[in-house]
Amino acid sequence: MTNESQTTKGDHQNVNPAPWEFKTNTIQIESLIRPRQGQSYPSISMVISGMLVLLGVTLLIGRFGKSVPALPKLGRFLFNAKDQCLLLEGEVISLTDKECRILELLNNNFGELISRETLLQKVWIEEGVITGRSLDMFVSKLRKKLSRDPELRIANVHGKGYKLEISEV
Question: Which of 121, 113, 120 is nearest to 158 (CA)?
Fold first, then answer.
């Protein structure tokens, strides 16, 4: 009976150890965290690699997956006011800040006359000094850049202003 009670008592202690009697096998836990020399965990490496790939794909979708707003057509050009450029058959034509603002105003009022005063005020608003010849110079530069589309032009109404139009051929 003594042997049975000791066995039962010993089994009982192993099944439900008291919290202060609970001991962990540090060798087993350590081997789960860090493999021994020459030992590897390919499944863990695969899971981590898969998670990194999914994270990368998610970031790419978040960055590039958004629908790209359609750029407005300007004759044969696509006009990208945000990046200050014109696109023509894969070619990028850069615009200066003022050229872009002038073209944007003309495009938003396509076919309508915009007075010189309005263009000067809206484009040079944050600058104290406004010169009329500056507007003429920027319009001239824009005309050169737009000359790749012979139908699109900036028309001058002498003494009044400018308008963007497509010439009828």
Answer: 113
